[in-house]
Amino acid sequence: MTFEYAPAPESRAIVSIKPKYGHFINGSFVAGKKHFPTINPATEEILSHISLGGASDVDKAVAAAQKAYTKTWSKLSGKERGKYLYRIARILQERAREFAVLETLDNGKPIRETRDIDIPLVAAHFFYHAGWADKLDYAGLGHSPKAYGVAGQIIPWNFPLLMLAWKVAPALATGNTVVLKPAETTSLTALLFAEVCQQAELPDGVVNIVTGDGSTGAAIVNHPGIHKIAFTGSTDVGKKIARAIASTDKKATLELGGKGANIVFDDAPVDEAVEGIVNGIFFNQGHVCCAGSRLILQESIADEIIEKLKVRMSKIRVGDPLDKNTDLGAINSKEQLVKIKELSAIGDAEGAERWSPQCNLSDKGFWFAPTIFTGVTQAHRIAQEEIFGPVLSVLTFRTPQEAIDKANNTPFGLSAGIWSEKGSRIFWASQHLKAGVIWANTFNKFDPASPFGGYKESGWGREGGKHGLTAYLKTGKETGSK
Amino acid sequence: MATKKQARVDVKKTYKLFINGAFPRSESGRVFEVSAKNGDFIANPALASRKDLRDAVTAARAAHSGWSKATAYNRGQILYRIAEMLEGRAEQFESEIALTSQITSLKAKSQVLDAIDRWVWYAGWSDKLQAVSGATNPVAGPFFNFSISEPQGVVAIASSTSFIDFIDAIAAAVVSGNSTVVLVPGSLAVPAMSFAEVLATSDLPAGVINILTGSLDELAPWAASHMDIDGFDISGIDKKKRGALKEAGAENLKRIHAFSTGQSPTRILAFMESKTVWHSVGV
User: Fold this and answer.
1) Which residue in A243, A449, A462 is closest to B274 by CB distance?
2) Is pLDDT above 80 for B1?
3) Residue A1: predicted pLDDT
4) CA distance A197 to chain B (A)
5) Chain A contact present for B168, CB below 8 A
6) For all residues of chain A together, what is the average pLDDT?
7) What is the pLDDT of residues A36-85, one digit of tens each?
8) What is the pLDDT of residues B198-250, one digit of tens each?
């Protein structure tokens, strides 16, 4: 017998979305000149109109951030800076439900994730970094490490408010001021965060938010008043930024793409591993740079795992992101959906075998059923390129060394997973994997105390933990001090 | 009848490259001339080619696995052994530096002794870096989570013409387990190749340090765009020329750094990556 679920929609009454938004510069909202619509990707309903920031808007925001840095923020003690961050953390907790609903509306991810993962982690990031503000002398970077000044921060659409928190919290804790640009399709929670800054009475100009597209981002990257770039997004854009700042003194941290390997050894706890595989690739519609998008199975257990995985996948509930029972929400944009379809078609063409459970997908909005490809080889493009969607490529191995060689065989090096009940094997594998974040018998876990970032073409630097502070402070390397 | 003793003819050294523990000539057959301050001929070191660079990178990549997996204690001992060999040949380095550069014998002497002390300083970091740079992270959940630092892989070094800069850059890169391809400009070729002889007699595994002499204007852009080089120390490159190298290095997001100071653990950590591992905790 099957159990049907009645709809359990979260009310959207808690949010009020304005018909039009400006930029948040120097503590207040200023009207933009041009606007573009932002939609709910689950319904294609236009939610609001967002300002398209140009060079003059970026100029104003940078000027405000510079002034705030010189006049107020750099003069404030760490203790006082920290208290602002604590205030922000508390207000975010108070307004958590509002943020969760708004994020789900604008991004398409399930309310279960925004409510239980994104927004709680956002508050945790501010709370964690608040405590660092007056303890930087103990971070191992020498006495009284200095901020860079104005940080230009460009964030993606997959975790809109969480990526804002990853960027803004450490920047403010270390004494920098910021000009942040949210992603084109997901600006709403960043603009609501501007209200939180107002409620927290954060000094004007410490946080500035300029909305827009790639051209707005480029204006931030190329602005001479910016001292530090923090970017999360694609490896292609990351390389462009690296080139753009090559002949400047700007510092950069880049959190870029990945093609995470999730390795399952023959002694793994099978049911837990299946759950971890699902969480690794279908969490947030697979719009996760550290997703476990390559499943690498020991040959002797491959059939058993794939069979159980298919059963588990057929239980994934795809649909209304505001429904509290939904597991897989909408693809964030039409553009992304096209990219997922293209790469999946290439998987078919290259001879991999595609499987998806039966799903009733809505005609409105952007949807893609959870999908696995078996019979994938290392040369296949779906084993090398980031799909950034709910699509899993399955490869197999015989010896542990083969698993490692396959796992490391991409230009990326962001994440990896290991499933085994044998402690020594887990440590061996984690030593040999070239990845910045490794999950053993778990996957896709995040915490403000835990550094995050990749090897090789997955980027530069770390965010979170003690390591993340170095991204926003001058170290001996720059100052020439011993 | 007493015969007058003839003046002895010196046996001079042929200067070659140092790749994979051996001393090959440049495959290109090219050399350049190094002269003394007074203009006297000193040597014809090899003018390394792009193919020599590729060979050196191949050797460095092959050596990386073993060197990075050697115990920190073992790496520390091998590096200390290099300091012992340097000390024994200190006078040779002093005279080579004094002969080929613009500094006085006295300054050359103090530079060589400082360089040996620096090398010892770096050697001692091998088994202390993790204590300084690593962390256990108190995450909110049933996980044991820690961060460790690992060497990046193959690091290229564009050295300045100063012997002590050359020593700093190599020591900082290899102590953590990186292997290196060192690009040596101009007259530094003379002491640099003597340093290679030190390395060859110090139990350092072949390929961990490879030394190419020649022109940085030629070699550095090739290194910057080489896709199998992970990090690039460009401290020896003129500031105006650094931007172009960083631009070329963006293709594989090379970690490219220049340092204004020699002695710093920051310099070691710049060519390491932090790895964070989450372990589930449960019974």
Assistant:
1) A462
2) no
3) 61
4) 26
5) no
6) 96
7) 999 999 999 999 999 999 999 999 999 999 999 999 999 999 999 999 99
8) 999 999 999 999 999 999 999 999 999 999 999 999 999 999 999 999 999 99
Cβ-count burial of A360 within 10 angstroms (0-12 exposed, 13-18 middle, 19+ buried)? exposed
- What per-residue confidence (pLDDT) applies to A465? 97
Flag whether residue B281 sits within 8 Å of chain A, measured between CB atoms. Answer: no
Q: How do A251-255 and A391-397 pair as beta strands?
A: unpaired
Instruction: Give the dihedral sign, CA B35/B41/B46/B49.
Output: positive
pLDDT in tens, B41-86: 999 999 999 999 999 999 999 999 999 999 999 999 999 999 999 9
DSSP state for residue A138 in the 8-state scheme: G
- Is position B19 within any domain? no
Q: Mark yes or no for CB contact A465/B230 under 8 Å.
A: no
Residue B266 structural domain:
48-280
Size of interface A-B (CB pairs under 8 A): 123
Q: Active-site residue among A103, A184, A255, A463?
A: A255
Number of domains in chain B: 1
Determine the residue type at B4: K
Give the pLDDT confidence score for residue B261 in this predicted structure.
77
B-chain CB neighbours of A273 within 8 Å are none
CATH of the domain at B57: 3.40.605.10
The per-residue DSSP string of A10-71 comes to PPSTT----SB--EEETTEEE--SSEEEEE-TTT--EEEEEE---HHHHHHHHHHHHHHHHH
Query: Does the residue B106 lie in any domain?
Result: yes
Domains in chain A: ranges and CATH = 23-256+457-479 (3.40.605.10), 261-447 (3.40.309.10)
Strand, coil or helix: what is B180? strand
| pLDDT given for residue A476 in this prediction | 58
* Residues in A touching B168 (Cβ below 8 Å): none
3-state secondary structure of A225: coil
The answer to whether the CB atoms of B276 and A238 lie below 8 A apart is: no
Chain B CA closest to residue A465: B137
Cα end-to-end distance, chain A, whole Å: 71
Is A463 among the residues known to form the active site?
A: no
Catalytic residue list contains A385: no
B chain contacts of residue A462, beta-carbon cutoff 8 Å:
274
Other Cβ atoms within 10 Å of B1 Cβ, number? 2
Per the CB < 8 Å rule, is A465 touching B263?
A: no
Q: For an interface test with B, give the residue of A235, A275, A467, A481 to mutate (most B CBs within 10 A).
A: A467
**Cβ–Cβ under 8 Å, residues A208 and A225:** no
pLDDT-above-90 percentage for chain A: 96
pLDDT in tens, B116-166: 999 999 999 999 999 999 999 999 999 999 999 999 999 999 999 999 999
Q: Across chain B, how many H-helices and E-strands are there? A: 10, 10
A380 φ/ψ sector (left φ>0, alpha ψ -120 to 50, else beta): beta
Q: What is the ipTM of this complex?
A: 0.95
For residue A366, give the amino acid letter.
Answer: F
Q: Which 3 state secondary structure label does DSSP give A392? A: strand
Q: Do B276 and A440 touch (CB under 8 A)?
A: no
Question: Does residue B241 form part of some domain?
Answer: yes
CB within 8 Å: A449 and B259:
no
CB-based contact, B61 to chain A, within 8 Å: no
Q: Is residue B80 part of a domain?
A: yes
* Polymer length in residues for chain A: 482
Residues 80-99 of chain B with CB under 8 A from chain A are none
Q: How far apart, in whole angstroms, are the C-alpha atoms of residue B162 and residue B187?
A: 10
The pair of structure tokens assigned to B196 is 């290679």
